[in-house]
Design a protein that fits this description.
The chain is of the alpha+beta class. The chain has 5 domains: 215 residues, Orthogonal Bundle (Hypothetical protein af1432), CATH 1.10.3210.10; 137 residues, 2-Layer Sandwich (Beta Polymerase, domain 2); 111 residues, Beta-grasp domain (Ubiquitin-like (UB roll), Roll), CATH 3.10.20; 145 residues, no CATH class; 86 residues, ACT domain (Alpha-Beta Plaits). 50% of the residues lie in helices and 17% in strands. The chain is built from 28 helices and 20 strands. It has a 5-stranded mixed β-sheet. Strand 13 and strand 14 form a beta hairpin. The longest helix has 33 residues. It is globular and about 90 Å long.
């Protein structure tokens, strides 16, 4: 098709620059799409140009130049014509008032859906307020889950906006640049679109830190001339040896991009001259066998740096990237990185999920980057169902900034995990049910604790037990989004169940004090009361009572129709069994244990908090007498409680270990030790212990008091902050 003649005929008033840009776009699409699709793209341009007629950008350029640039970026990635059309029309609905139905009528439902998705993303305004930013981020990720092409259009849109950011005020430049580095570049990286990630990072760096950018750029430019000769010399030497070995391929010398160098300098506190592999080489060959042969060749030419070899062909990165990486000592000791990959791997490395559209596969669902992206998005969808916006943002950031290790299942399957991942993270990566029921782990056939941090190449096996449940403490050490979300979901479910059980007990106790019970109240009266309180069912009421959001004595009087407290009711009481779960907690100000005289305080959102009657905080709480409960202990409680003991000893080497040994012999675990002070020859140590009851605590105190170096032992009420503490 003679596009020049067509454009002049259809748009006689178009500027030469715009005609050239559109001609380039159409010729790029024609190389991989049928003629009727190219004609539809031209029709979309015509529609968009008319809709944006008279609109200009801050740079003074006609507005239509922006959609053309975005569409051209996507055409260079060989995306399907529907995505190109959506790119040309992505601002039409938002900026011109054109109804979405018109786009659907002219270009079909698929294009309309893409335009709608991108339009919704364009309405997102990231702000400094954490909650607003998190909710906006959540919307963007959900749009991506619906159709990944939406985020590809948005990434191209952001890249062109960054390329023309100089027209913006300085304050806005910095805000948009930070947003690009924190959100869009990591998404491009996670989807494996390397060229977009690199461009977004360098532009974000340029506008967020303009001075640092210019200083670093000048320093690299000064050394370019001589190093360009070195790069040429090394490339020719590699090619020569490859040909001698009968390997066809291409060697490309390249510089690392500025932001990558800056991050390495900032992260490792190094000056530019000490940053290794600033320059690198990419070797592209025909097949995997040739990749490993080339690796042997370059290791023969230049000495490799120990510990700097990565085989991403055997174990691909999480975004589908495959390549061999090695860092070598080049001429004059110049460090350089060499990447070796096949043609297909190179296409995937640059375009990631977009490589899915670059060639016709018999089954596109088998394309590795696309499959990996789909798996990742499926995990995000699972997470967002139960997480708040801020929890969702934090969870996804874990995936967006991956620093991966690779471990093996007993069957030899490979699982990628973030650095710092534990046995519990591995269990949840295998399956949520495995994580929920895990009780121990084996690393390289050796039993290890669940909080053990995993290392590269270990083989991990999970030991599960029927009836086992997640431990809320796991949240403090897991690193993966999936594990954290699953544990928090379980905690919310258990907290709801525990609080409902406790609330029902509290209400029943209050009703019995008034001569009634939950059973005697009956369903009819309960329904009437729930309607008065505007609650859906009794379970919600019980949960609110258990969490302290409503008071059981007042609710009991409401159910019985008693308007005023006539004084006949006694104080509601509660018997503690120690199995109430997360809605009965024990004050860390006084550490109550079975055998102590105690009171319960209804704390909104936390349930019942148990305090000793001698607790110093009682004075503050007495101002709200209706929130207090009379509490007693069951006779036999099978669990451990925290208690604190103050021990004063002679200041001698090894005395801390001696005291700890006596405590351990008294069948108690030490949760925490702190050394508060050293006065003259006396040490004051505070131990947080696990005990069964007052009898058990008395035995521990008696055994410690008998020690020759111990001066005084007493039960202590509160943890005081100290300068030295160990766990």
């Amino acid at each position: 098709m003679d596009y020049a003649a067509t454009l002049l005929a259809r748009f006689p008033g178009a500027s030469p620059r715009r005609s050239k840009e559109l001609k380039q776009l159409l010729e790029t699409i024609e190389a991989y799409a049928p003629a009727e699709q190219v004609e539809l793209v031209l029709k979309a341009y015509e529609f968009g140009a008319l809709a944006h007629e008279g609109q200009t950008r801050l740079s003074g350029q006609p507005y239509i130049s922006h959609p053309i640039a975005v569409a051209t970026m996507l055409a260079d990635m060989h995306l399907d014509p529907q995505t190109i059309i959506a790119a040309l029309l992505h601002d039409v609905v938002e900026d011109t008032g054109t109804p979405l139905s018109k786009i659907e009528e002219l270009f079909g439902g698929e294009v309309a859906s893409l335009v709608d998705g991108v339009s919704k993303l364009d309405q997102i305004q990231f702000t400094t307020r954490a909650e607003a930013q998190a909710e906006s981020f959540r919307k963007m990720m959900l749009a991506m889950i619906e159709d990944i092409r939406v985020i590809l259009v948005k990434l191209a849109d952001r890249l062109h906006n960054m390329e023309t950011l100089n027209a913006m005020p300085r304050e806005k430049q910095a805000r948009i640049a930070r947003e690009t580095l924190e959100i869009y570049a990591p998404i491009a990286n996670r989807l494996g679109i390397n060229h977009m990630k690199v461009a977004l990072e360098d532009l974000g760096f340029r506008y967020l830190y303009p001075f640092r950018y210019s200083v670093l750029q000048r320093a690299l430019n000064r050394s370019k001339g001589s190093q360009r000769q070195i790069v040429k010399k090394i490339s020719e030497r590699m090619l020569k040896v490859m040909r001698e070995e009968g390997i066809d391929g291409d060697v490309r010398g390249r510089e690392k991009h500025l932001y990558s160098i800056y991050k390495k300098m900032a992260g490792k506190k190094r000056i530019l001259s000490n940053v290794v592999d600033v320059y690198g080489f990419r070797v592209i060959v025909a097949d995997v066998n040739a990749c490993y042969r080339v690796l042997g060749i370059v290791h023969g030419l230049y000495k490799p740096m120990p510990g700097r070899f990565k085989d991403y062909i055997a174990i691909p990165r999480v975004n589908g990237y495959q390549s061999l990486h090695t860092t070598l000592f080049g001429p004059n000791g110049l460090p350089m990185e060499v990447q070796v990959r096949t043609v297909d791997m190179d296409r995937v490395a640059e375009s990631g999920v977009a490589a899915h559209w670059q060639y016709k596969a018999t089954d596109k669902s088998t394309a590795t980057p696309q499959r990996r992206a789909r798996d990742w998005l499926a995990r995000l969808e699972e997470i967002q169902r139960t997480a708040t916006s801020e929890e969702f943002l934090e969870s996804v950031k874990v995936d967006l900034f991956p620093d991966k290790i690779y471990v093996f299942t007993p069957k030899g399957d490979i699982l990628p995990l973030p650095k710092g991942a534990t046995v519990v993270d591995f269990a949840y990566a295998v399956h949520t049910d495995v994580g929920d029921r895990c009780v121990a782990g084996k690393v390289d056939r050796t039993l290890v604790p669940l909080r053990t941090v995993l290392q590269n190449s270990q083989t991990v096996e999970i030991v599960t037990a029927r009836g086992a449940r997640p431990n809320p403490n796991w949240v403090s050490f897991v690193t993966t989004a999936k594990a954290r979300t699953a544990i928090q979901k379980y905690m919310k479910k258990m907290r709801s169940s525990d609080s409902a059980d406790l609330g029902k007990r509290l209400l029943d106790r209050s009703l019995k004090d008034l001569g009634s019970s939950v059973r005697k109240v009956g369903k009819v009266r309960m329904r009437e009361a729930l309607d008065e309180l505007e609650l859906d069912d009794a379970a919600v009421l019980y949960e609110q009572l258990g969490l302290g959001e409503r008071l059981a004595p007042l609710t009991a009087r409401l159910l019985l129709g008693k308007k005023e407290d006539s004084g006949e009711s006694k104080k509601a009481s509660l018997v503690i069994a120690g199995t109430e779960g997360m809605v009965v907690s024990y004050g860390k100000c006084c550490y109550p244990i079975p055998g102590d005289d105690v009171m319960g305080y209804l704390s909104t959102g936390r349930g019942v908090v148990i305090h000793r009657n001698s607790c110093g905080n009682l004075t503050n709480f007495r101002k709200q007498p209706k929130k207090w409960l009379t509490v007693s202990w069951e006779d036999q409680i099978e669990r451990d409680f925290s208690s604190q003991v103050l021990v004063e000893t002679v200041d001698k080497t090894g005395v801390l270990a001696e005291v700890a040994a006596v405590i351990a012999d008294s069948e108690s675990n030490i949760e925490e030790v702190s050394v508060d002070s050293r006065l003259e020859d006396i040490s004051s140590m505070r131990f947080l212990l696990q005990v069964k009851n007052r009898v058990h605590l008395a035995r521990i105190v008696r055994n410690v008091r008998k020690m020759p170096n111990v001066i005084r032992v007493s039960r202590d009420n509160a943890i005081k902050h100290s300068s030295r503490r160990t766990k």
